[in-house]
Known about the structure:
The chain is an all-alpha fold. The chain is built from three helices and no strands.
Amino acid sequence: MPKEKATTRKSAKTADKSAGGKKKKDPNMPKRGLSAYMFFANDQRDKVRDDNPGIKFGEVGKQLGEKWKALNEKQKAPYEAKAAADKKRYEEEKAAYTAKGADEDEEEED
DNA sequence: CCCCTGATTGTTACT
DNA sequence: AGTAACAATCAGGGG
């Protein structure tokens, strides 16, 4: 199993060990679909802020985090469902990307 | 064939 | 505009 690390993917990236940056970002790389957490945050963000009026983002994020884990599979179900729906969206982009985006030129009708 | 790592998404608030 | 913890998730490369 992967070692859960406080990876700040951005800037500091998750490189603390010999990771070796390979992976190349393709030109038409479709942005992955959102995660269940994204949808969860979208719904709870308002609730959490209402429960913790005036709290900063840091608190909200942590609250959301532990609450998210507190949810049962059925609670996450609707969020995962949306995530899956978005993922499907991504699949389409990815398919198109892997299909021709490989070298095909992008023609944008202006 | 299997594991891991990097990259990406969205929230809000601050700088 | 970018970054900060929070969690998820995928795709590809390397062993």
